[in-house]
Amino acid sequence: xxxxxxxxxxxLRGTVRVPGDKSIGHRAVIFGSLAxxxxxxxxxxxxxxxxxxxxxxxxMGVDIQLDGDTAVIEGVGLxxxxxxxxxxxxxxxxxxxxxxxxLVSAQRxxxxxxxxASLSRRPMGRVVGPLRARGAHIAGxxxxxxxxxxxxxxxxxxxxxPLVEGEQLAGLExxxxxxxxxxxxxxxxxxxxxxxxxxxxxxxxSRDHTERMLGELGVPIQTAGSVVMLDPSADEWSGGWDxxxxxxxxxxxxxxxxLAAAQLVEGSRVRLEGVGVNPTRTGLLDxxxxxxxxxxxxxxxxxxxxxxxxxxxxxxxxxxxxxxxxELLVRMIDEVPAFCAxxxxxxxxxxxxxxxxxxxxxxxRIAAMAAVLGAFGVPHxxxxxxxxxxxxxxxxxxxxxxRGDHRIAMAAAVLGMxxxxxxxxxxxxxxxxxxxxxxETFRSLGADVEVQS
Length: 453
Ligand code: S3P
Hints:
28% of the residues lie in helices and 25% in strands. It has 453 residues and is α/β, with parallel strands linked by helices. The protein has a 4-stranded mixed sheet. It has a 4-stranded mixed sheet with strand order 2-15-17-16. Strands 4-5-3-14 form a 4-stranded mixed sheet, covered by helices on one side.
C-alpha cells in the first residue's frame, strides 16, 4: 500500500495545470461512444474513474484508443451498443455506475454493473426506484448481495434484464428527493430512449454538464431553474448526434486542494490554468470570496460541450471564518474536504451544514474529516449534516488513514503541509482515481510530499 509522507515547506509558488474534470470526462466518453462516428476527447484526467467508464464502453463493443490524455472513440450511435461478454466493472466510480444504470436499462441486452468495496456500500435505490417506475428491469442487492424487496434501499451489484421486443421505457415526471447530478443524468440518459418526455425537478440545481452537452449535441432538452425536460419525440430531433472533438477543462475539484493549500501555507501564490468554472460547480470560489480571499479568474475559451473555463490565481491573505449551507453547499459538495483545510486557516468557528450527502460518498466524508481534523489537533464538532471547525490554531503532524477515499487523502496531505513535524497518510493509491499527479504537482510548487510504496 502506498503512503504520502508530508513535511511543511516554504510557500507554494508557481503555475500548474490540474487533470481534466472527472465529471465532464465521464460524460464526454459516454456521448462520444453514442455518437454517429469518430470523436476525439482531449484533456482526460487519466484517473481510474474515467478509465472505468472507458472500460465499460469497450465491453459494450466501442473501440476507444487512449493515448496520454486523448481518447479517440469510434462512436456506434444510440442503438449500436452490444451485449458485454462479462459484467460491467465500474471500479470506485459512482458516476459510472449510476449513469450507466440509466443507459443500459434502455437496451435490448441484459448485464450486471459491479463495483469495488467502497462503491458496493453506496446507495443505488435513488436510481433503481425511478428507473423501475419507467419500466426498466433493474434490481439492486442488499449489503450481502441478496435480492431486495421493492422500495427498499439497495446497493451494487445492479442486475439489468433486457427490454423485450416491443417494450420501451416510458416517459417520466419525477420530483427528485435529493439534488444529484448522477441521478438526473441517469434518468436523462434513459430518457433518450423513452416513449415520452422526461421531466425532472431537483430541490436545488446540481451540476448541469449532462444538460449542457446534450443541448450542444442538438438533443431536445430544456432547462428552467431546477426543472429539466428532455423530449426525444420532438419533431426536430433526428434521434442521434454527429461526431465531435472536445477538450475537457481542468477539474475544479482537484484545483480545490491547491487553492486551499495556498491559503494554509503562508506566503503562497499559485496560478492554475484552464480550470472548469461551470457555475453549478463554483461554490468553493464563492465561499472563498465570503472568506475574504477571492480567487482571480481570467476567462479562457470554452471547453467540452460549452463548459466555461478560466485561469485561477489565489489572493494572498488570511481567510476569515464563515457559514456554509443550502444551495452553496450543493455547488461545492466534492470540495468540502479541501474546504475543511481552508476552515483550519480561518480564525474562529466555521460551520458547514446541509452536507448530509457527504455521508454516502466514497467514504462517510463527515466522519472521515472529523477523524482527520482530530488527528491534527484541530478542535471540531461533528454534526449530523456537517462540521464545526475551530480554525486559527497550530497543527500537529499526524498519521492518518485515507479510508480508501481520494479526497480525504488529499485534504489530509494539504493539512500536513502546514503542520509541525511529519505527517503520514496511509493508503493513498485511491488518489489515482481523480488526481494521479497530485504529489508531482504539489512538489513542482515547492511542497514536500514524498510517495512511499
Ligand atoms: C457527480 C455528481 C456528484 C458528485 C460526484 C460526481 C457527477 O454526485 O459528488 O463526485 O459527475 O455527476 P451526486 O450526483 O451523488 O451528488
